[in-house]
Amino acid sequence: MEMLTGVKQKDTVGIGEILTGDYAGKKVKVRGTVHTVRDMGDVAFVVLRRAEGLVQCVYEEGVTAFDLKSLKEESAVEAEGTVKPEERAPHGFEIRLDTLRVLSEPAAPLPIPVAKWKLNTSLETKLNLRSIALRNVRERAIFKIQEGIVRGFRDFLHSQGFTEVRTPKIVAKGAEGGANIFRLEYFNKKAELAQSPQFYKQALVGVYDRVFEVAPVFRAEKHNTTRHLNEYTSMDFEMGFIDSFEDVMAMETGMLQYVMKLLQEEYDKELKLLNVVLPNVEQIPTVRFDQAKELVAEKYNRRMKNPNDLEPEEEQLISRYFQEEYGADFVFVTHYPSRKRPFYAMDDPADPRVTLSFDLLFRGLEVTTGGQRIHDYQMILDKMASRGMDPEAIESYLAIFKYGMPPHGGLGMGLERLTMRLLGEQNVRETTMYPRDVNRLEP
Q1: What is residue 366's predicted lDDT score, i.e. its pLDDT?
Q2: How far from 157 is each of 245, 251, 360, CA to CA, in Å?
Q3: 11, 251, 297, 415: which has the fewest C-beta neighbours closer than 10 Å?
Q4: What distance in Å separates the CA atoms of residue 248 and residue 243, rounded to the nearest whole number?
Q5: pTM to 2 decimals?
Q6: Largest Cα–Cα distance of the chain, in whole Å?
Q7: What is the DSSP string of 256-267?
């Protein structure tokens, strides 16, 4: 009987090991996928693709024990040779090949040229062939940066005493209400796909004080725009014992500062690859909803159409205003009208027509919605009654307030939208690994 005692040590090395170890002039064995082959005659460059990046290997006629003509792109191979410094090669080194062993071969040639610097093909083609298109180094870089955003979000909130939670995505009632709900049959019962983890994360504030979750949410919106998805990743947190909704905004500001610092320090290669300029998050301005509308109306001669919400053009103009006046890429817009916020949003005691809530705009696009929640049992019953809502429909949610809850608030941030704006992309599908929209259910 064989006993496993942990991760098995391999006799192959990775890019990071070569870069940090003393491998110059030494023989190594590496594994990777053949990204491209550049045949120069007696010499050829076999470029391997790994998760860490590209490795340039040098094939020499009469030296390398392998028939280069039989080598296919996208073959998985094991290469053995000597490490040599080479400034022009990726990562500053190359491997002079002694042998090359094929581990597996593709059954057909690639439908798109993933080895090219940029995929000059339509977004639809890229999405139809998503798993193949992601092999391109620039496409891969998008989602490495997205990984860094989620990693920073998690690490920062852990450092602030938050507990990571998992909440159901099949629910009896949606947190937001309205018509944009995916309904389904659940063992002869009516169920829905969760629009938000709102009810559960509020409940768990009563358990852990501070909680967060990174998970999918579902909106049955029929919008076919560059900013909407029917399934997206929401980065949520909820925090108890707050003094005001400004505590939530301050926590988000700290989180963004941490994320941008992490990206700069550990994802610099991907940032440079995509020519990304990180935003300045040292300070984020705040402006009231009504004041923001007045500012853009006055400066840009834009007539206000909707007094209760921001239109996409207004979001762009507000961001433009604060970029021009303050050099700010982010801006918090606060005190949204009560009629446009969910029933659990706390009204401003000084003016019940508005709520203690906010949106965060990033370069012209709303990426976060948050605010302070009602924590008083009678207060939330009264607000539901004013909206004609039936308390029995969400009895289990209301129970958390019946048995006591601290003052609390939180937010939800769209990961794909944040990534889109950070990278300067024009369509949220570019920054969604496998998008789900009104037309797309595959791959």
Answers
A1: 96
A2: 17, 9, 18
A3: 11
A4: 10
A5: 0.94
A6: 85
A7: HHHHHHHHHHH-
> Which parts of the chain sit beneath pLDDT 50?
none
pLDDT at residue 177 in the model = 59
Whether the Cβ atoms of residue 64 and residue 99 lie closer than 8 Å to each other: yes
- Give the pLDDT score at 155: 98
Cis peptide before 216 (omega within 30 of 0): no
How far apart (Å, rounded) are the C-alpha atoms in residues 292 and 319? 10
Within 10 angstroms of residue 405's Cβ, the number of other Cβ atoms is: 19
Q: In degrees rounded to 5, what are phi and psi of residue 298?
A: -75, -45
Give per-residue pLDDT as tens, 72-98: 999 999 999 999 999 999 999 999 999
Q: Can you give the pLDDT at residue 252?
A: 98
The residues, any chain, with a CB within 8 Å of residue 440's CB and separated by 6 or more, are 127
Region of residue 294 (left: phi > 0; alpha: psi -120 to 50; beta: else)? alpha
CA atoms of 441 and 260, how far apart (whole Å): 33
- Looking at residue 114, its pLDDT comes to 94
